[in-house]
Give the backbone structure.
Amino acid sequence: MRIGLVLAGGEGRRFGGDKLLALVDGEVSIARVAEALREAGASLVYAATRSGERCRLYTEAAGLDGCIYDPPWLGCGGPAAALAGLGGLRGKVLLVAPGDMPWLEPGVLRGLEAFMEEAGAEAALPLHAGGYLDTLAAAMSWSLVERLPGVLGRLCRLRGELRASDPARAAERLVLVGSGLLASSPLAFAHINTREALRSREPKNPLGPKQAYILEPGLDPAAPRGRLCTGLRMELEEYRRLGIRHLERQAARDMERLCSP
């Protein structure tokens, strides 16, 4: 079974209000994203949010099946935090999409899942031009989802923060899919972070290459320091070799914070 998760925890400060309830072509943004998840095959669709009141609003607006909250024991927030709170759910594949990506096409999500399965990977993310990722739109296998509470909890204790790329970097095998293989227009990946972005419909990044990269990051914060730092060094070198700037920066930050004398 596929489960859909709409990331809906942002405050919308730059937008000047709740952007997930903004009207986009006559329909609120979160409802459009939830529908894309359903059309991609999700049997159940939840929102990851931070309050019961928001859960009520989003559930009414998008016909959701419920809400997921950051687990109180975690101690860190951010988009990745909600993925530590999925323990009560069971599925085969998790499809994740941000609630402020109203032009997301179901084919993008179906494509990510197909590439993930073909590569025997645990996660798939879109890769845009210049080596930048959409870390908030993903397909993940349930084997990865089940490990995330432990992985994210340890990362929070080690670093004092979580990053949106952490779940993908914890995958034993990860496939980065050039967004040019997933959509014909970059509008499919446009976020409405501001009212101007909603008006202009300008995506942040051009579509990526029409190819996919299979990586084996396997970020394991439970490993002894020597093994952890060796793994981070290998990650950094691979990202640098392939020009994956987004993950290169994340691995470099971890090397500096966790492996410096």
Notes: The CA atoms of residues 241 and 248 lie 9 Å apart. Residues 142-159 form the longest helix (18 residues).
